[in-house]
From TrEMBL, chain A:
Residues 379-527 form the Thiamine pyrophosphate enzyme TPP-binding domain. One of its GO terms (biological process) is L-valine biosynthetic process. Binds 1 Mg(2+) ion per subunit. Binds 1 thiamine pyrophosphate per subunit. Its cofactor is Mg(2+); thiamine diphosphate. This is Acetolactate synthase. Residues 190-324 form the Thiamine pyrophosphate enzyme central domain. It comes from Meiothermus hypogaeus NBRC 106114. Keywords: Amino-acid biosynthesis, Branched-chain amino acid biosynthesis, FAD, Flavoprotein, Magnesium, Metal-binding, Thiamine pyrophosphate, Transferase. Pfam families: TPP_enzyme_C, TPP_enzyme_M, TPP_enzyme_N. It comes from the Bacteria. Pathway: Amino-acid biosynthesis; L-isoleucine biosynthesis; L-isoleucine from 2-oxobutanoate: step 1/4; Amino-acid biosynthesis; L-valine biosynthesis; L-valine from pyruvate: step 1/4.
Automatic annotation (TrEMBL), chain B:
GO terms for molecular function: acetolactate synthase activity; acetolactate synthase regulator activity. Pathway: Amino-acid biosynthesis; L-valine biosynthesis; L-valine from pyruvate: step 1/4; Amino-acid biosynthesis; L-isoleucine biosynthesis; L-isoleucine from 2-oxobutanoate: step 1/4. The gene is ilvH. PANTHER family: ACETOLACTATE SYNTHASE SMALL SUBUNIT, ACETOLACTATE SYNTHASE SMALL SUBUNIT 1, CHLOROPLASTIC. This is Acetolactate synthase small subunit.
Length: 561, 169
């Protein structure tokens, strides 16, 4: 057995049955071994799509996603996706080939310092230098990726290591003296948290991406205590969007009720989130009335990083939420709940109807038609925010987007990864005309796999979010955001790949078109030609606070349609 | 505020780059970084001098702890020994200067490790303040080269930096 075969055997032992990848010179020994392996390989058309698909696979399934690339350009194409997985704490293992060890450092063909370059974009990375280390290093990589705060791990295999004869053992132990994640929160801290909540007059619970694994426990805690719940963009689905206690997401494009609740809250329990600036706005003005912030996170470095924390709880969201649920008592907060209900009723996410087809109504129509049962992905921009606002996520792991890094182009590769993670389930990619064109080559992968993915391009002919900022903050100087004059006919583009393409621009045909898209078996691309100058609201301008929230589009009254 | 931080790490290739990269990336200010092997195979020890308030120091420790190869991080707030080694090359114009410079060196207990016709190299050990003062005392005579190792340190008494459960990721 050579190193390459050992790599695949070690992966199998980790339970890997699927790799997203693209072959090339230095990874060829492993692709040769793959020919005889039971592990399934999905050939993507660009390595970036491979790491994104692996990320979505991980987020949709809770398992580790695996991707593979060759040295140099192949490996460097992973960089964006690795940082994306790092920022959204996703367990991914990336395998890369490298030039033979004798050539390392000589500027060989397709050589790059991949371990050096990917150090800041991974939770950990390592180059294998001895063929017999393969099983141990792979076991460690999966352990590191999937435990504690999950994240991407890259393993670099010089070609000669893949070719060398393997004489080692697969019976390996993971021994990492510097890595001991804390799962069990300190009981005294949990007690203090429960006491603080009992005393609170205006408490809220915020749940983030770290809570996706703890949905059940959070539900028990929330229903026992009656606490209002605010899931962040990454936490959508960790608590059902249609639950009466749910206030919607907070932050820059969050709901009025959520942002006002944070502003007025005296006690905040935050589970599995990291107070991103898109959630907090200006940190010094965030939650000005909260005398007690309780922060539960498995990564101690997140606690106190940005927000002063009264009660830190280092531990796993699932474990801590279960303990909180055990000790929870009904909170006496009816006056507070009344206030929140009032804001919720007065200011739901809404849009002003126009004669044109509008992004919001397209998403709403899909939500209604699917009864919220789809796994949804998106690119980055206005359409992403609209999807977060108008598709109500009731189940964990059903909303897969790029929250931290804001990577345009993730929508389609995320949809492919999610569809493979959740066979038999419907996947919808709400995408933008700008985002979609960053990875559209993956239509080929989608066609080949014939997955039940519905791509809904909300085509407004603009880089809409940038245009919105230019509108509001740059005196409407629309600098380099116009796409409509050179966008392709998206439906025809899909047809060119052998995928059913549909174009919709007539508002009156929305519901029948949604039905048609959903009824068609296999992949469909719907181009929805939507109103070109829509804005996402409410909006807290960058660096602002809840009080600065713009609830409705200020242009609507001035510019009209 | 100045803090001396000791870091026990697995002696893997690239570990120094990982630590230096983290410090640069997170925008921490470091005055010096010294690294060397320990008595235990596979383990190295790094001394960092960091400036910042308590919140910065807390982040430095926590972020270092996130690195898989970092086994233990300690801020030497407790009584500890701190030393730095410096080589200082001074230009010498004449006999009178030579004697003056030797007097200063004696006061600092610096050793002469090289003597040439127009220069002397001194070796000095001490805490960073002592090294600063020595360098300043010699400045008027013409400093040709100064090489400092950066501060290294350890706690006094039985307290040691060793492999055991650290406080998690």
């Amino acid at each position: 057995m050579n190193g390459a075969a050992a790599i695949l055997k070690a992966l199998e032992m980790q339970g890997v049955d699927l790799i997203f990848g693209h072959p090339g010179g230095t990874i060829m020994p492993t692709y040769d071994a793959l020919y005889d392996s039971p592990i399934r390989h999905v050939l993507v058309r660009h390595e970036q799509a491979g790491v994104h698909a692996a990320t979505a696979y991980a987020r949709a399934s809770g398992r580790v996603g695996v991707c593979m690339a060759t040295s140099g350009p192949g490996a460097l194409n992973l960089v964006t996706g690795l940082q994306d997985a790092l920022m959204d704490s996703t367990p991914v293992v990336a395998l890369t080939g490298n030039v033979p060890q004798a050539l390392i450092g000589t500027d060989a063909f397709q050589e790059a310092d991949v371990v050096g370059i990917t150090q800041p974009v991974t939770k950990h990375n390592i180059q294998v230098r001895n063929v017999n280390d393969i099983p141990r290093i792979i076991a460690e990589a999966f352990y590191i990726a999937s435990t504690g705060r999950p994240g991407p791990v890259l393993i670099d295999f010089p070609k000669d290591v893949q070719q060398a004869e393997f004489t080692g053992t697969f019976d390996v132990e993971v021994d990492l003296p510097g890595y001991k994640p804390t799962y069990k929160g300190h009981p005294r801290q949990i007690e203090r948290a429960l006491e603080a909540l009992q005393k609170a007059e205006k408490p809220i619970l915020m749940v983030g991406g770290g809570a996706q694994n703890a949905a059940q426990e959070i539900m028990v805690f929330a229903e026992k205590s009656g606490i209002p719940v605010i899931p962040t963009l990454m936490g959508l689905g960790a608590f059902p969007g249609t639950h009466p206690q749910c206030l919607g997401m907070p932050g820059m494009h969050g709901s009025v009720a959520a942002n006002r609740a944070i502003h007025h809250a005296d006690t905040i329990l935050a589970i599995g989130l990291r107070f991103d600036d898109r959630v907090t706005g200006k940190v010094s003005r965030f939650a000005p009335n909260a005398h007690t912030i309780i922060h539960v996170d498995i990564d101690p470095a997140e606690i106190g990083k940005l927000i002063k924390t009264a009660i830190p709880v280092v531990g796993d969201a699932k474990w801590v939420a279960a303990e909180l649920a055990k000790g929870a008592k009904k909170l006496n907060i009816s006056k507070w709940l009344g206030q929140l209900e009032d804001w919720k009723t007065k200011h739901p996410f809404a849009w002003k109807p126009k004669p044109h087809l509008q992004s919001q109504e397209v998403i709403q129509a899909f939500w209604e038609a699917t009864r919220g049962k789809a796994v949804v992905t998106s690119g980055v921009g206005q359409h992403q925010m609209f999807a977060a606002q108008f598709y109500k996520f009731d189940a964990p792991r059903s909303w897969i987007n790029s929250g931290g890094l804001g990577t345009m182009g993730v929508g389609l590769p995320f949809a492919i990864g999610a569809a493979l993670a959740r066979p038999g389930e419907l996947v919808i990619d709400f995408d933008g005309d700008g985002s979609f064109q960053m990875t559209l080559q993956e239509l080929a992968t989608l066609k080949k796999l014939d997955l039940n993915v519905k791509i809904v391009i909300l085509n407004n002919g603009f880089l809409g979010m940038v245009r919105q900022w230019q509108d509001l903050f740059h005196a409407r100087r629309y600098s380099e955001v116009y796409l409509a004059d050179s966008n392709p006919d998206f439906a025809k583009l899909a047809e060119a790949y052998g995928i059913k393409g549909i174009t919709l621009s007539d508002k009156a045909k929305l519901h029948e078109t949604v039905k048609e898209v959903l009824a068609h078996p296999g992949p469909v691309l719907l181009e929805a030609r939507v109103y070109h100058e829509e804005g996402v609201f409410p909006m807290i301008p960058s660096g602002g606070a809840a009080e600065d929230m713009i609830i409705e589009n200020p242009r609507e009254t001035v510019a009209g349609d | 505020m100045r803090h001396l931080v000791s870091v026990l790490v697995q002696d893997n290739p690239g570990v120094l780059q990982r630590i230096a990269g983290l410090i640069a990336r997170r925008g921490f200010n470091i005055e010096s970084l010294a690294v060397g092997r320990t008595h235990q195979p596979g383990l190295s020890r790094i001394s960092l001098v960091v400036s910042g308030d308590d919140a910065v120091l807390e982040q430095v420790e926590k972020q270092l702890n996130r690195l898989i190869e970092v086994i233990k991080v300690t801020d030497h707030a407790e009584p500890h020994v701190e030393r730095e080694l410096a080589l200082v090359k001074v230009s010498i114009a004449g006999m009178e200067e030579r004697l003056e410079v030797k007097d200063i060196a004696e006061a600092f207990r610096a050793r002469i490790v090289d003597v040439a016709r127009k220069s002397i190299i001194f070796e000095l050990t001490g805490d960073s303040t002592k090294v600063n003062n020595f360098v300043e005392a010699l400045r008027p005579y013409g400093l040709l080269e100064v090489m400092r190792t950066g501060a290294v340190g350890m706690s006094r008494g039985e307290q040691v930096l060793k492999v055991r459960e650290k406080k998690a990721v």
